[in-house]
Amino acid sequence: MRPATVNTDVTSDPLIFIIAGEPSGDQLGAHLMDGLRVETGGRVRFAGIGGDRMTEQGLKSLVPLSELSIMGFLEVLPSIPRILRRLRETVEAIRTLKPAAVVTIDSWGFTGRVHKAMIDAGMDCPRIHYVAPMVWVYKADRVHKVAARVHHQMCLWPFEPPLFEAAGLPSSHVGHSIIETGAGTGDGAAFRARHGIPETAPLLAVLPGSRRGEIRHLLPVFAQAVARIQRVHPELHVVLPTLRHLREDLERRTGDWPCPVAVVTSVADKYDGFAASSTAIAASGTVSLELALARVPHLIAYKANWISVVIFSRLVKVRFFDMVNILLDRAAVPELLQHRCTPRQVADQALALMVEGPERTTQLEDMALAVDLLRGDGSPPSRQAARQVLAHLRSES
How far is Cα 145 from Cα 261, in angstroms, rounded to an integer? Predict the structure, then answer.
């Protein structure tokens, strides 16, 4: 599908309509808005849908982000009439405002419908999607649906563009947003000073996930693993980054651990804690990329109820679950999943990574390689994405 006429002259203050459907997309949208301002010298305007982060960048959201950010099949059902109404309102706003481009971010269930409605209404505005649907995990045939609805796909993962280009959709790797989080810029010495941790004491980062179900399954395993590690390293300290609303519960749950535990909730404390840590044990997820940026050797561990595992295994076909391993297509980071997620195995793997040796050295090298693969052309991902958007602007009459 060919885009509308390209116009790279942005001196006319183009209007970019950006749609984010959930908090992670809101953060990406805020970075993109900032990147567009830098690339145009401030000669750009915005409209669309976003949350707090995009609002801070000056967006007046068409609808509250909370109305679209709904997880789970049963939870979505009662909200369908409202979501469909918001869809109609969004498309009507695009028709009225006639933006130079529409950029949708993730949330393909909603944003894909926006693109289809624009096509059905005969709108020729350039349509760009940011964050490719994970067709390499499940529902591979979605590449054709995406290709039929958008002009360009901006991908976070370097191996994604060929998957969509094979279906005729021009795609680009713009670097992963994790690069701009600051995860690798923490101040470890300041963290130790704030929390009274001796300079020579080993510090272990423990990350049991952000959902209560994850914490319920993983924290008891991590607690017993920490006890095993503490017997080998009596001066052990733990930092446990979490969300603000979980802090009180986690402080209670870790109150009887055999070593001091600093439960922190700010992003700065989290990244300073990473900088001070020698090793980490973590639930599977994006945090593995943050740890890689911070150069913290780590393992991932995860267990869920057996029904979820059966359903997940039928839907998802991937060799690895850790994001560093997916990037490298090999087991650089230990994965202790389900029956392997035991206190003994978690402790043994963590202990092996805490000391200088081949396992620690090799993983540090592998993490650096994975991070390099995420950088795109080396400039900030938000700037790379901004340049792609500007390259697809419609000529204004």
Answer: 48
Taking the C-alpha atoms of residue 277 and residue 271, their distance in angstroms, rounded to an integer, is 10
**DSSP, res 67:** G
* Average pLDDT of the residues of the chain: 87
Q: Which helix (H) or strand (E) holds 205?
A: strand 203-207
pLDDT for 337: 86
Alpha carbon distance 329, 319 (integer Å): 8
DSSP 394: B
Summarize pLDDT for 117-139 with one digit per residue, the tens. 999 999 989 999 999 988 766 67
- Please check whether residue 107 is in contact with residue 20, taking contact to mean a CB–CB distance below 8 angstroms: yes
pLDDT confidence of residue 72: 39
Q: What is the pTM of this model?
A: 0.77
Whole-angstrom distance, CA of residue 168 vs CA of residue 148: 9
Residue type, 390: L
Q: Which domains does the chain have, with CATH numbers?
A: 15-176+376-390 (3.40.50.2000), 188-374 (3.40.50.2000)
Tracing tokens 């423990």 back to the chain, one arrives at 206
